[in-house]
Amino acid sequence: MSTENEGTEVPPAPSAPPVPVDSPAASPQPSSAPQGGATTPPPPSTPPRVPGTPPQGPAAGPQSGEAAAGAAAPSGAAAGPAPHGSTASPVDGSWPPPAPPAMPASGGGWGAGYQQPAPARPSGRRGGLIAAVIVAALFAGGLGGGIGYTLAKNDDTGSTTVSVSDNGASQVKRDPNSIAGVAARALPSTVTIEAQGSNGRGGTGTGFVFDTQGHIITNNHVVADAVDGGRLTATFPDGKKYAAEVVGHAQGYDVAVIKLKDAPSSQLKPLPLGDSDKVAVGDQTIAIGAPFGLSNTVTTGIISAKNRPVASSDGSGESRASYMSALQTDASINPGNSGGPLLDARGAVIGINSAIQSANNGGFGSSGQSGSIGLGFAIPINQAKYVAQQLIKTGQPVYAKIGASVSLEESSSGAQITDQGVDGSDAVEPGGPADKAGLEPGDVITKLDDTVIDSGPTLIGEIWTHKPGDKVKITYKRDGVEHTTEVTLGSRVGDSD
Length: 497
Prior knowledge:
Elements: E1 29-31, E2 88-90, H1 124-153, H2 179-186, E3 190-196, E4 202-209, E5 215-218, H3 220-223, E6 231-235, E7 241-250, E8 255-260, E9 284-289, E10 297-312, E11 322-329, E12 341-343, E13 349-356, E14 376-380, H4 381-394, E15 398-401, E16 405-407, E17 415-416, H5 433-436, E18 444-448, E19 451-452, H6 456-463, E20 471-478, E21 481-488, E22 490-493
Parallel strand pairs: 1-10
Antiparallel strand pairs: 2-16, 3-4, 3-6, 4-5, 5-8, 6-7, 7-8, 9-10, 9-12, 10-11, 11-14, 12-13, 13-14, 15-22, 17-18, 18-19, 18-20, 20-21
């Protein structure tokens, strides 16, 4: 789900701690938030091959791309592995918890920066005709690739219109419940967000209309650079662009709300929100975003897993991380998709695309433009909706807490309450929820309600799916003996305390 500041990104990955596994209680994954492509992807090292022609030689164009950096995740960008080591983190929502170290992802590219070798000349007039057709096809393919590369390079700052005869294709009637029907309804309510900080750093991400007052939901890491004195714009698919401002942002949840300036209500059609608790593995998904700056891109897939523990860093170097119990999807998500809607088959929003798995570093991160490998992660909309409402109401996020610090060390046995809290404070807050429930330093929490807890970040992400005041059942081990207790979650306001 790669957090990239530039725009376009956490369960466990098989090769790095924590890595996505088949169990819902997998260790949290460091992830890369799929934000926007702040850098232009380079052309491929090997040119595309036309069927029936011999393999081509290496590309002649540039070979390397600069990694896109992001402020928090799915933006969408690559972040480091989930926090591990002997660091303690307040499960009560105390801030800032340690972030996973950023791990650069190698850049990828596409385009037509290469030369096609001349095909062998067949004998005879018929052979000559075939050769001419092949040459024409190769030329057309190279031209098309060149146009695509130019559009990506321009990062959607301009547009290209090509007039062709559709021979009545546009008159075809499509089922409103088909993917084409859902996309036609949802696209007018999505926006491509361009964020730029006062230092010039920024990138491209995605957002969608939340209400008719001009509020847009997106990822925190998409807009983080523009929070203090930066510049924000949101562009609709019809080309209309509006200036925007940040209403509120939540680093821990990786959710932000911006508000459009001077946007007429006729332009604002909120997307319907679904119920992420009722989503099932195998349900169809539709993702909309601006991967690598290619706005209004629609991809499809299914729900691959639920409740994936994900921990992602924004790649900014700050000691902050985002934790989520994510929806996993194989819909293609790339840098630039961050903040965009993940829809169900009816067109209702079930999640916010936030992070992606990076294949080359075994983890999640936000400092590179890794591409989709079919492992994307979205913040469940039930959680995102609650956070957005709090941000609109007060401008500050509200986190649920149990009032105890746990180890962020990689583990499979549970979340252990540390002997000492952050900065020498008490590991169990005196008079806090955990203290009232009888929890003590050294206890190892193994379950929260029916969810298996295998590490500290997993516990944090699961707690943050709840609201302050919720009652949860905690299963823990003390001296090898299993116990259960009920905890009434407390609250903490803001990202720093």
